[in-house]
Amino acid sequence: MLCVGRLGGFGARAAALPPRWAGQGSLQAGIRARRVSTSWSPVGAAFNVKPQGSRLDLFGERRGLFGVPELSAPEGFHIAQEKALRKTELLVDRACSTPPGPQTVLIFDELSDSLCRVADLADFVKIAHPEPAFREAAEEACRSIGTMVEKLNTNVDLYQSLQKLLADKNLVDSLDPETRRVAELFLFDFEISGIHLDQEKRKRAVDLNVKILDLSSTFLMGTNFPNKIEKHLLPEHIRHNFTSAGDHIIIDGLHAEAPDDLVREAAYKIFLYPNAGQLKCLEELLSSRDLLAKLVGYSTFSHRALQGTIAKNPETVMQFLEKLSDKLSERTLKDFEMIREMKMKLNPQNSEVMPWDPPYYSGVIRAERYNIEPSLYCPFFSLGACMEGLNILLNRLLGISLYAEQPAKGEVWSEDVRKLAVVHESEGLLGYIYCDFFQRADKPHQDCHFTIRGGRLKEDGDYQLPVVVLMLNLPRSSRSSPTLLTPGMMENLFHEMGHAMHSMLGRTRYQHVTGTRCPTDFAEVPSILMEYFANDYRVVNQFARHYQTGQPLPKNMVSRLCESKKVCAAADMQLQVFYAALDQIYHGKHPLRNSTTDILKETQEKFYGLPYVPNTAWQLRFSHLVGYGAKYYSYLMSRAVASMVWKECFLQDPFNRAAGERYRKEMLAHGGGREPMLMVEGVLQKCPSVDDFVSALVSDLDLDFETFLMDSE
After folding, report:
1. CATH code reported for the domain at 65-196
2. Would you say 406 and 58 are in contact if contact means Cβ atoms under 8 Å apart?
3. Which of the residues are catalytic?
4. What residue segments make up the domains of the chain, in order of their start?
5. Which residues face 3 on adjacent strands?
């Protein structure tokens, strides 16, 4: 999962637009190779020992978070933000007085970089730092930079300096493709704010943007808000499954894994019971997004949101979802039948499959068919072994090594955060990854990649090295064993490292399109591709060793694990298609032809197949409508592309160096500076159609290619 700040024209582009590294050869030649440090140590060992904290540096100078001198104390955020704001004023003057040309784009990118270097770092610190004073200071910095961004996005002189460049055909023709693309992205972000409109409409656009931010925040909070019910309305024998509060029972989730059908049914019906305030908030959010899209020149919000993506427009997205749904339908029916049989076996009185059943019963089927109890696998997946496995894979595929580096005093926010140097065999140091892997109080329960500093070519010819954080929630080591990962945790680690490699290997000239700052439907491709490596025995066999005996993980255990993931996988994918279709309809033509709940009911019946439950409103818990509005389909499309890249480049040999270099050169290197479909074509050496995407996803539901290869050896 990507976590990136979104600050309009000058903020980090979340998963938003595509990569190019024009003049790749010359840019590479211009970047001096970094020397290797003697203070680096092997990565595997570093993760299987207790952290040394900063005791080696007790008397050393306090460096500040991420090595930023000002951030040795919370007050430093104010100094850093003031410095960034002063620099911004100077750069705005430069942009407005410089004649239009490539220099204009460089100034805009430096402007973006000076704001992002504070905003991105603060975005992370405000949720992850254990000290409230740091979190509050970071929150204040985010607000301050956000206010400046709003000011910049309505600065007509600044906008016109960019518009003059893009309106001059001769100048545009003289720009290299990456520079042209970055200029267009800045202009696109400006026009989302309505800056190209007359004064009255511009004010409406600004007001709508503010309203949308407020509604998004309110809706997001409401998606997690628990519902309560009077105690006497629930059967006595299931009350102990929920939290009590006086005469009420609090329901704070779906309890999808509860073995008792009645517990899951009660949780589903109560947690999803419609809340009038949340319903009004959603309707206003959708309608405000539509008004803003129309005001700035788009027929729907979806048309605006999909500009620059792989899909390009909502028509292609719906075609993709409908074709995928058709191809899945038979398999999904078989999955539902399998669930029905299991339910009948365990609960003969009521065997109708309801929406609260699939997660639980698919788990039961998986456990019965395949012995994949996580505790059998954990001893083979110590964190150190998994990190060494990643190191081996990245080294053989891309010539990259990960080294642990001792952080300076004050550089990290918790003593168990590890700092990794990412080093290429000939290019030297590429960047840094801070690994915040372990559970702690008040830490968000999510696995995420955060960009702290984007890569870019500086004016002096040096390359600004990217810095990222990978956040996981792994158990700590104990006295008797190192940190042991379940197969799911191991796969998540590989997934997040895919994002990190995208950030490290993107060698874009401009920070605005560094690494993962690319379209949402492309941003997950590198991370999902890493899941294919994590599920291939030839890769797993390189590192999965029992932490006590050294015994390798048996081949049949990997095979069972891979096959178990196919259990009810069609029904799982069908559910994602339903969510994605619902998201498209909500952000399509307005006014909506029906209430959001009626649309949910129709879409569920068309795209999922299990009956809608009266008096429920699942859409009010659909938190992705905020960050992924009109883009929920992205995960499915990214998975389709990743599947095709795996089969084309790595299925025959997951360590193929030539394929790894092609993948880096055509895809990872470009960050968000090139059309995403051009990158996909570059790797696949063909232009895939919607049918190709659908076939890739559906073929993954069949017998694993890896398993087939393994069994035929």
Report:
1. 1.20.1050.40
2. no
3. 496
4. 65-196
5. 450
